[in-house]
Design brief:
The protein is mainly alpha-helical. The protein has 14 helices and 3 strands. It has 2 domains: 218 residues, Rossmann fold; 87 residues, Tyrosyl-Transfer RNA Synthetase (Orthogonal Bundle). Strands 1-2-3 form a 3-stranded parallel sheet. The chain binds tryptophan.
Length: 336
């Protein structure tokens, strides 16, 4: 069996990240760290989904800057262009094109049931049509690459399920065209919560500067934020996400960064102070190389641009074939 044949049989992983530009510990422990391990085992494609960013108001210069920063973030977090295909969604025109065919496969009713659309559009006076059809574009992202596994957070489960439904419906109506992806939620989902409001997921630092650990925070900032993290007054060391959400978050973070079980971490401490100190040290240890790589890569934008260009080239090689298959299946007349 030649290398190409072997490659074709390898499980393919695809995931996308919106260009928020700001990567924090939640993204890292919840996604990037797992993906850098996955890239050694699977055929991985990672995409900065800039077209998805257009579904809400965003300043053009900001979008450009954040798209670039997010790509740097992937590299800093350990995604290696020699192992993975890293690219920007709008560089591969097939995404927008297949998205239209997906819009004509999914139904209006299905899209109205998407909870993320309801959440994001609910309070707004003006909602872009693209926000409504967002899942069709996401389905195109996934199906273009014959992805078997799509590691995403729990909040994306419904979008992943609709991508599966679209693939199944399309295959039934037009013949086998797409690989139906599994719903592969992370093997161990490290859900990192806000340090000040542990009932919320950790998110962009502009929303919660003290509650979010940015991947580029200095060791002092990390220590400061962890020391000030909200816990509770009873001081009892026990894992209780309902009753003691702040402590539970610290315990889970410690377990995630050290690879230990939560029970094991609980057994190791009697007081919150030493747990916080050790957690700050452990975080510094995992984040230091990320910071160093970030500095290295951001000092060379030309190099990043050319990496992304090669990524787009590789991605387009796959995407163009799938798109051609889909266009043919639905009956679009081929060019002579
Ligand atoms: N919707 C995803 C999110 O908000 C991002 C995304 C877009 C994505 N296309 C994708 C994730 C394809 C996985 C696969 O996080």
């Amino acid at each position: 069996m030649g290398a190409a044949a072997y490659h074709a049989r390898m499980t393919r992983v695809f995931s996308g990240v919106k260009p928020t530009g700001e990567l924090h510990l939640g993204n890292y422990l919840g996604a990037f760290r797992q993906w850098s391990a996955d890239q050694r085992e699977f055929d991985c494609l990672f995409c900065v989904v800039d077209l998805h960013a257009l579904t809400v108001e965003i300043d053009p210069a900001e979008l450009r800057r954040k798209t670039f920063q997010t790509a740097v973030g992937f590299l800093a977090a350990g995604i290696e262009p020699d192992l993975s295909t890293l690219f920007v969604q709008s560089h591969v025109h097939e995404h927008a094109e297949l998205s239209w065919i997906m819009e004509c496969t999914v139904s209006y009713g299905e899209l109205t049931r998407m909870t993320q659309f309801k959440d994001k559009s609910g309070s707004k006076t003006s909602v872009r049509a693209g926000l409504f059809t967002y899942p069709a574009l996401m389905a195109a992202d996934i199906l273009l690459y014959d992805a078997d596994r799509v590691p995403v957070g729990e909040d994306q489960r419904q979008h992943l399920e609709i991508a599966r439904d679209i693939a199944i419906r399309f295959n039934n109506r037009y013949g086998e065209t797409f690989v139906v992806p599994e719903v592969a939620l992370p093997r161990f989902a490290a859900r990192v919560m806000d340090l000040q409001h542990p009932e919320n997921k950790m998110s962009k630092s502009e929303d919660s500067p003290q509650g979010t650990i940015d991947l580029l925070d200095s060791p002092d900032e990390i220590r400061h934020k962890i020391r000030r993290a909200v816990t509770d007054a009873d001081g009892e060391m026990r894992f209780d996400p309902e009753g003691k959400p702040g402590l539970a978050n610290l315990l889970q973070m410690m377990a995630a960064v050290t690879g230990r079980s939560v029970d094991d971490v609980v057994d190791g401490y009697e007081q919150y102070g030493p747990l916080k100190d050790d957690l700050a040290d452990a975080l510094d240890e995992v984040l230091r190389p990320v910071r160093e790589r970030w500095e290295l890569f951001s000092s060379d934008p030309g190099e990043i641009a050319s990496m992304l260009d090669q990524g787009a080239e590789k991605a387009a090689g796959i995407a163009s074939k799938t798109l051609a298959r889909a266009k043919d299946a639905v009956g679009l007349l081929p060019r002579g």
